[in-house]
Amino acid sequence: MELIRGAAELRARVDGPRSAGAGVGLVPTMGAMHGGHASLIRRARSEQDLVVVSIFVNPLQFGPGEDLSRYPRDEAKDVALCGSLGVDLVWAPPNEEVYPPGIVLQAPDPGPVGETLEGAARPSHFAGVLKVVHRLFDVVGPCAAYFGEKDAQQLFVIERMIKGLGLPIAIVACPTIREPDGLALSSRNAYLGPEERAQAACLFLALSEAAGLGRAGERDTAVLIAAMAREIGATPLAELDYAAVVDVDTFEPVRTLERPSRALVAARFPSARLIDNLRLPLPG
Ligand code: AMP
Question: Is 37 designated active site?
């Protein structure tokens, strides 16, 4: 495995094998890796000839007052994990290799979906995500890119960008990896104290309740949303940010459960803000 810093160096290292016919898999991450990242990497390893993992904490997707400065970083541990999973290239660039000084990079517009839910809670978040992901795709070139359903809205705006701009990238959506109590693995779980950690399963409980209602035949999403809000509201250390049900194809809110839909929740704990989502079964 090689650890690479420079963008041009990475591109050169990928171009050779690709032009000889190798399938390239890219797993973009912000590091502080856990089993969720590992599952994306394993999937890429099983499907591609050359696996590239990027590690970059993108300042543009953090708002003022968010956790950029305390975001967990452990490059040596991440690189060792990548090595043990059979990654070929780790790209861990300094800021100026991602955002070259004096160069105006393309800044794709996330559109209206980028202003709802996570975008409403974190203005400019998705613009920052699209800018860095577009740059990553530009540096790596044509590839299959592996993303987690854990960040379903992010996945949606990235897929839209790829379609809209006609980028030569195939997205592979990977299922959310969870702790035994249902808590979705996240680098931010490290912020949680023991009490918060014990209560953090309320997000998955809320989503599971919504799924249960759907399975039992409830079509009115207002009922599902109220149940999710109640579950999180009843958790002493959690403060509900949003609970929503959206159409998987448009990410627009749905009133009646009749098309493939996804339930999403966000909650603030004293030390971390957590998000999660679950695909809903269709009634009947
Ligand atoms: P991050 O380092 O948080 O930017 O995440 C890098 C990638 O891992 C993104 O595509 C995430 O959606 C994905 N990811 C994060 N947590 C999980 C999880 N629990 N299960 C599966 N994928 C995840």
Answer: yes
Question: Tens digit of pLDDT for each residue in 110-155?
Answer: 999 999 999 999 999 999 999 999 999 999 999 999 999 999 999 9
Token pair listed for 103:
């160069």
**pLDDT digits over 47-104, tens only?**
999 999 999 999 999 999 999 999 999 999 999 999 999 999 999 999 999 999 999 9
Query: How is residue 149 written in tokens?
Result: 């359903």
Q: Are strands 143-148 and 24-29 parallel, antiparallel or unpaired?
A: parallel
Q: Please state, for a pLDDT cut of 70, what percent of the chain lies above it.
A: 99
Q: Which of 34, 37, 125, 134 is catalytic?
A: 37
Cα–Cα distance measured from residue 84 to residue 111, given in angstroms and rounded to the nearest whole number: 39
- Residue type, position 236, single letter: P
Model-wide pTM > 0.85: yes
Ligand 1 atom closest to the CA of 186, numbered from 1:
16
Q: Does the beta carbon of 40 lie inside 6 Å of ligand 1?
A: yes
Determine whether the shortest distance from the Cβ of 37 to ligand 1 is under 6 A.
yes
Residue of the nearest CA to atom 5 in ligand 1? 29
Given 3-state DSSP classes, what are the helix, strand and coil percentages for the chain, each rounded to the nearest 5? Answer: 45, 20, 35
- The atom number, within ligand 1, closest to the CA of 176 reads 20
Is residue 30 lining ligand 1, measured as CB closer than 6 Å?
yes
Q: Tokens 């014990």 identify what position?
A: 198
